[in-house]
Amino acid sequence: MQHIPHYPRSAVARAIELFLVPAVFLGALFVVLRLSGIFPRPLFVAGISFSSLALASWLTLMRLLVAYVLALVFAIPLALAATHSSLAQKILLPLFDVLQSVPVLAFFPILVAFFVDLGFTNGATILIRPIRPEDEPAMVRFHETLSERSVYLRYFHLMNLEQ
User: Fold this and answer.
1) d(CA 15, CA 90)
2) Whole-Å CA distances, 109 to 1, 74, 114, 151, 159
3) Whole-prediction pTM value?
4) Measured between alpha carbons, how far is 66 from 71 in angstroms, rounded to an integer?
């Protein structure tokens, strides 16, 4: 059997493998789902401009950065304490095991309250309200974009949306 030498891949090849291949796969998956009617056509939403979208994206990135820094500030000292002290290890490891089994979304209401209290909602406030009679034209336009399968998955039974 002939030995084939192994050559290290370049940084460009690794970048293509890590980013481009998944991006092409996800793009193709989106196109297939869009053509099959699972994803409805986008609905124009009045009042959203490119600048407000850019601001909301920037604020979201800053929230993620704050969350990451807070995670590091808490995780590194706790991990060091658990590795250097047997008492801390006996206390922290069971706590870590319990917290790992809690779904991440269970912490979401706590994080929302934290970010609201600190005023991090600027530019990203979302108002959830009941549907009003003046929303009917927008709802009709939205329902026109839905496939029968999407209606079934949304309302759990087939409906005549032209009513």
Assistant:
1) 42
2) 61, 19, 9, 29, 34
3) 0.39
4) 9
